[in-house]
Amino acid sequence: MPNNIPEMPFPKQAPSSNFQPKSTVLAGFLSIMPGLGQAYLGYYKHAFIHIMVFAGAMTVMVQSNSEALLPLLPLFLFFYWAYNIIDAVRKTHIYNRILAGGSMEELPDQTVSPALTGSMPAGLILVVAGLVALSNTAFDMSLEWLEDWWPVIPIAFGGYLIYLDRKDKK
To answer: Is the terminal CB of the chain with fewer CB neighbours within 10 Å at N or C?
Structure first.
């Protein structure tokens, strides 16, 4: 496990007056609005990301005229909402266990925030998505073709993952 754990609000030494146990019930209740439970625990970056993903999905769902996407968005939102509650409660248990004298080695690996590094595929996807959106807003170009061609995105991503898997096994 790495020695440097970025953005961890967990106490690193024995309990002191600065750290008080957090309520798992309150963290779960606050997470009914995605991100608030994480903010309660001090995960401000995670909270912001959760709020933005939820707000983005809600915006797409409300503004979408596509009948193909409409059933998928509420399903995604339900699972994302449930994930937020479970994540906040789980992080509260970890926080309280460490506060009670547990060691940092008890932290699961997925709580470590990934470092922001460059990615050519992700950068290209964002540039293309931005250009498509710009062509619609600035030049009033129709996006009806996107409804027929959106499956190319998961196919390309799946192909990229297969390529990475094959490359790693050589």
So the answer is: C
Q: In this predicted model, what pLDDT tens digit does every residue of 78-112 receive, in sequence order?
A: 888 899 999 999 999 888 888 877 655 444 545 55
* Whether the Cβ atoms of residue 61 and residue 74 lie closer than 8 Å to each other: yes
Short-list 68, 154, 160, CA closest to 119: 160
Closest CA to 146 of 138, 157, 135: 135
Domain match, 68 and 93 both: yes
Same domain, 101 and 149: no
Same domain, 2 and 76: yes
Query: What is the spatial distance between Cα 126 and Cα 111, in angstroms, rounded to a whole number?
Result: 26
What is the extent of the structural domain holding 133?
A: 118-170
